[in-house]
Amino acid sequence: MNIILMILLISILILVHELGHYAAARICRIRVSKFGFGLPFGPTLYEKQIGDTTFYIHAFLLGGYVSFPDDEKDSGLSDDSPELFKNKTVGQRAFVTSAGVIANVFCAIVLVLFTAFVWGKLPSSEYDVYVTKIVAEKGASVYNSGLKPGDKIVKVNGVKITNPIQINLFAQASKPFDNKITQETYKQKFNELKKLNPQVSIEDKIPPATKINLPAYSDEPKIVLSKIELFGIPEKDSSIINLTQEQKTLRDNLLNKKTYIADGKTTLKDVAIATADTKIPLIIEIEREGKIITLNKIYPNNDGIIGIERTYKEIFNQTSNIKSGFVNSFNYLYSNTETMLWSLGQIFTGKIPLKDLHGIVAITKVGGDVIEQQGLFKGILLTAMISLNLAIVNLLPIPALDGGHLLFLLIEKIRGRAINEATLEKIGNTGFYLLIILMIVIVFNDIIGLITNKF
Hints:
The protein has 455 residues and is α+β, with helices and mostly antiparallel strands. It folds into two domains: 24-28 and 88-120 and 319-451, no CATH class; 125-276, no CATH class. It is 45% helix and 19% strand. It contains eleven helices and twelve strands. Strands 3, 4, 5, 10, 11 and 12 form a six-stranded antiparallel beta sheet that branches. Strands 1-2 form a two-stranded antiparallel sheet. Strands 6-8 form a two-stranded antiparallel ribbon. A hairpin with a 2-residue loop joins strand 10 (284-288) and strand 11 (291-294). Helix 1 crosses helix 8 (360-374).
């Protein structure tokens, strides 16, 4: 039932988008020959002629369209008719083209304001995270850290914790002996080795039976995850050195030793890399009885697990009066728009891979779960964000999207004349086919996600 409700909510967003185009066209006195709610595949549930426009409701609701007489050979209008889209000014055509985006933005604002004033609060997108139980294996460092059930985890490695997932990501990134080190850690360890062993050649292999003094054991530097890594997406780092199989074996053999007798197969660089790959601490700050306490270092186990159970409490901003309602609604819309734009940038720069893109199937599933588990107001807010996302994506300067048409209109305005229709058609068709391919890929990702219980 909740999934059906989510489908209806998404369908309404598409209807709002197309109504934006329709209303703008009527304002500019452009004739609209067809208005369709849903995609023209399969049976048509409803059809009615009202004035010059035929309205359709199709069985497949997740779509919509507005059609102008310009697209029809037998429209009954002369080529110079003022009711044709092509005969309007660039400004009027741009208004009609962007009206769907405007409608979606307006819809998002209305939905958020509605939720704020009816529900009386808005999510801040942050959570307080509390420790409920320590469940680590016997002898784990967490027992000596000072951590207790009831503690609120405030920071990990200097990063404010606003979501329990962040703790998992830090722990996973801080696994001991993870077969990689940074260039900085390597250089530090290499310089220590040179001072302890000035007689050894830096570049050549160490002669057999040579005694090498090893630097004192030390932890690797704490991990500080970037913004994209806090989304659970690994970021490529050119400064990382990955250990070879020989260096891994050497690391294991040198653990907790003060000297090394060379076998003639290793260099000082190999020893530096091997001794640099050690444990990585977590520096955790907690709040207890109103005081901020920095715990003793905690080291995750080989699986990247600390060994604690947690609970979390969502933080809400109250919207009990007109001022707080508008202010917190604006903040909610602003922060989510910023996140969407940032995520879009990560997609275009390749930092978020194509396999992690999801679409309508995933949105419907997640939306249905949100309504079921967190209530209708959370579902409405998700719908508002989808509406905002629909507006942002449609503004992209890609052929077949509203942003692509706006780009062509801008070029026309600069050139003083329209782009050749044949050229426009070729570009539009190419963009459309690429969009279809992308949609197929996204639907495939959604299906795989459902099968593997990704969401």
